[in-house]
Amino acid sequence: MNNGSLIAPTTQRSPNNRRNIRSDDGSDAISQANNGERPQKVYSFVALPGINTKKRPRRRYDEIERHYACNYSGCTKSYGTLNHLNAHVQMQKHGPKRHPSEFKELRKQWRRQKREEEERKAAEAANTTNAKNVMGLNINSLSSI
Taking a C-beta distance cutoff of 8 angstroms, is the pair 132, 139 a contact? Predict the structure, then answer.
């Protein structure tokens, strides 16, 4: 068995007991460090496709519609998703996991309320544009003046 092949390579050390690091331009980084400059590290990363896609922003605390409430006595927690409620229920030992079937009617009601609110906002927006046109303040006609 050849023991010479199992010896790990040693690092070269300078008289100051620092490692000699060669930069890409061939100069010693240790000489740059002695001049008061820090050696520049050069990283070469290959860009992966799809990495630069922008993530959607997280909802802020006050933006979360907390429809899923814990039904344990004395617990006032409520969550925006059933998964988060079930994580809470299991960690705090607040009974069995809740199932989507329990919230079926509630989800129908939430969707109905949301649809009505969107229709109301659309009607208000239409009324405000009609009011501007009636008063003769059509913005499109003002831009041509």
Answer: yes
Full-model pTM? 0.45
Q: What is the pLDDT of residues 32-77, one digit of tens each?
A: 555 667 777 777 677 666 666 778 888 888 888 888 999 899 999 9
Contact 68, 82 (CB under 8 A): yes
3-state secondary structure string across the chain: CCHHHHCCCCCCECCCCCECCECCCCCEHHHHHHCCCCCCCCCCCCCCCCCCCCCCCCCCHHHCCCCEECCCCCCCCEECCHHHHHHHHHHHCCCCCCCHHHHHHHHHHHHHHHHHHHHHHHHHHHHHHHHHHHCCCCHHHHHCC
C-alpha span between 113 and 65 (Å, rounded): 13
CA distance 21 to 107: 63
